[in-house]
Design goal:
Layout: H1 2-60, E1 73-74, H2 88-97, E2 102-103, H3 113-116, E3 121-129, H4 136-146, E4 151-154, H5 156-161, H6 163-171, E5 175-178, H7 191-209, E6 215-216, E7 222-223, H8 225-233, E8 237-239, H9 256-265, E9 271-276, H10 280-295, E10 298-301
Parallel strand pairs: 2-8, 3-4, 3-9, 3-10, 4-5, 6-8
Antiparallel strand pairs: 1-7
Helix pairs in contact: 4-10, 7-8, 9-10
């Protein structure tokens, strides 16, 4: 009797042990399976985060100033022109330096379609104001009469001496540009000095006229890759030009007819015209040039 009871107990114990073993095995298989199913999702999420981080890093990446060339470039539009009458050097430089904030010519609307679509032809009219020679008021009169907006690049000295003219430019919707505070050649100065040259004039105009500039013309048209990138970091586009002629010599103002012909002969879409406001000839022919350009399908715009 006792032997039978002991055998029953042994059998029951064995059954219980077997049940526990089966349960443990099932539970282990379930968790291993679940973990294996979840693993790809974790990996996918990690990949997604990594991709997003990488994309953000690429988007925010900008060239370090120290990695760019400090070599001085003395700008001039050159004398070779393409089939659209555009200076080849301006086109090449726009493609080369546009990513650093340089603006030599507007290439967005100067493809073959510009020949058959006159409304696409744009001209950016700009004036350098190193000092006042008595002609800026007449130029402003003409721009107002013709309903044209232009850019006037001023220096620190001009801003201080000719406050009434600067105020008039702003009030009449003209664009006031930064020609630096002391008219230094930027590539010949340290980056800290260049930064100061831009910011001193920027702050002066903002404080005294309530106006914030965002277009820069480097003195003498001299720049480097570093100065382009520095200006861009400060919120500025560095505006050079695709047309200029010898109009800055006040002792040789030039014949009006010949000067007007020069402006008209070099008309090209996306052109950035540099004129000096010290020229009596420019003041005299400006209205005729605007009329002629418009008659040829051009519109006047600002950066």
């Amino acid at each position: 009797m006792k032997k039978m009871q002991r055998n029953k107990m042994l059998l029951l114990t064995g059954v219980c042990a077997l049940g526990l073993s089966v349960a443990f095995a099932v539970n282990t298989i379930y968790h291993v399976s679940a973990a294996s199913k979840k693993q790809p999702a974790k990996k996918e999420a990690a990949t997604s985060v990594a991709s997003a981080t990488e994309s953000t890093a690429v988007a925010k990446q900008k060239p370090e100033l120290s990695t760019l060339s400090a070599k001085k470039i003395c700008w001039g539009q050159g004398v070779n022109f393409d089939e659209l009458n555009r200076p080849r050097d301006a086109v090449t430089s726009q493609r080369k330096y546009g990513g650093l904030g340089g603006f030599f010519i507007d290439l967005s609307d100067t493809d073959e379609d510009a020949k058959s679509q006159p409304e696409r032809k744009k001209i950016y009219l700009t004036f350098d104001e190193g000092y006042e020679n008595g002609y800026t008021a007449k130029i402003l009169d003409t721009l107002k009469e013709k309903k044209v907006k232009a850019v006037f690049f001023i220096t620190g000295d001009y801003a201080k001496r000719e406050g009434a003219l600067v105020r008039r430019m702003i009030d009449e919707g003209q664009v006031v540009g930064n020609h630096t505070f002391r008219h230094y050649s930027m590539p010949e100065k340290s980056l800290d000095t260049c930064r100061e040259e831009i910011s001193l004039l920027h702050d002066y105009v903002k404080e005294n006229f309530g106006y914030e500039m965002n277009v820069l013309r480097p003195p003498k048209g001299e720049f480097s890759e570093q100065t382009l990138a520095l200006a861009s970091e400060m919120g500025y586009t560095t505006c050079l030009w695709s047309f200029a002629y010898k109009d800055w010599d006040v002792n040789a103002p030039g014949d009006k007819t010949q000067s007007l012909n020069k402006l008209n002969e070099r008309l090209h879409s996306g052109g950035v015209y540099l004129l000096h406001a010290v020229s009596s000839t420019n003041a005299a022919i400006l209205g005729d040039f605007i009329d002629s350009a418009r008659a040829n399908g051009y519109v006047f715009v600002t950066p």
